[in-house]
């Protein structure tokens, strides 16, 4: 029997590479996309479907989690809070943080995985080179994996695979290029849906990564600053 | 400053008693109700609001989690699976189990709690006298509490309080009567919304509890079998 994995595909670059890695590891993919009321949702959904088409994924589930917008507290979903300019040197948790978002996402993924009998969840979280979100760290995923063990049927065994957890954006981009991940189909900008702004935190992380990898990013940008490490 | 707790209020009897206990412990209540597409949702929502009115709760959040119905796999939400007759002696996990439901509920509760700076989550889960759901056991809640510690901001400290975890239904009903919980405003039936069926698993657990407590259940039933331990 083929191994089956629920892969979280936001439409961003990391999730695209995650899908590519799951394919490389001979998993059949069940693709999960969350619409949590973010500004750029329709563009991200297009990226999700483009990436699924590229990998011939037939099991797709799109879940509305707009309650995260209802709960608020984040610039990603609360339109009263501006999306800030990137500040890559800062140690502070940025206001784009949706409280405990990954736990919500993983809980949904686990429910689906238990129903379709998947063996693993793939999530493209990055600890080292990330924005400092507490729910992007491997200690968090370890704790969640233990929670899955305790909270599902005795026969259910689901691993949380975080293949990018110790990677930099540059390494992810290099790996993606190597295993032919369609990075040009992914979308990262938190602000815009047609031409990426180039200056929000997510654009900055992406552009800095491509720059460091020495690879050209093929998506269109309004401005394209040379972000350095 | 007052202590603030997010209390999960489904509209069932246990959640009503949980609210009563939180009040007894001098917590201000923020009431969270989940609509997960169950058959009897509108009746449960009425029970939620009636219980909130009784305790003068102004912070109320109702979250649509109908993705649990979309994911399926349970007779509570999948209309193609019949709600079974009660079988209280069985060791099997009943088909009313929604996979990993409590993790989804707690993830939402935690996101809200982090935003409103609550100190605790109250959930009326029962381990001993329950239906055998894996996500109703204290080991699961302990694992989830650890996940909260790892996945939220460093300054966020949220306890999961399960005051009924080792209680029987009969003990809960006695305690509820003692601290003047409005049990008559709660709703338990999985099948009906006007007159409780009396024979689904949830009705059976409720009626057995009232019977053992020696207290009369004031809500209307179609049939009222004498369930025994």
Describe this structure in words.
Two copies of one chain form a homodimer. The first copy, chain A, is an alpha/beta fold and 229 residues long. Chain A has a five-stranded parallel sheet, sandwiched between helices. In chain A, helix 1 crosses helix 6 and helix 6 crosses helix 7. The longest helix of chain A has 16 residues. The mean pLDDT of chain A is 89. At the A-B interface, strand 3, helix 3, helix 4 and helix 5 of A face strand 3, helix 3, helix 4 and helix 5 of B.
State the distance separating the first and last CA atoms of chain A.
45 Å
> Looking at the structure, what is the overall shape of chain A?
globular
How much strand of chain A?
Answer: 5-15%
- How many strand elements of chain A? 5
Across the major sheet of chain A, the strand order is: 3-2-1-4-5
Largest sheet of chain A: 5 strands, parallel
Q: What oligomeric state best describes the polypeptide chains here?
A: homodimer
- Helices of chain A, by number, come to 7
State the helicity of chain A in percent bands: 25-40%
Q: Report the largest inter-chain contact.
A: A-B, 43 and 43 residues
Report the structural category of chain A. alpha/beta
The value of Rg of chain A in angstroms is 17 Å
Mean pLDDT of chain A: 89
The arrangement of helices and strands of chain A along the chain is EHEHEHHEHEHH
- Uncertain runs of chain A are none
Note the main attributes of this structure.
alpha/beta, 12% strand, 5-stranded parallel beta sheet, 7 helices, 229 residues, homodimer
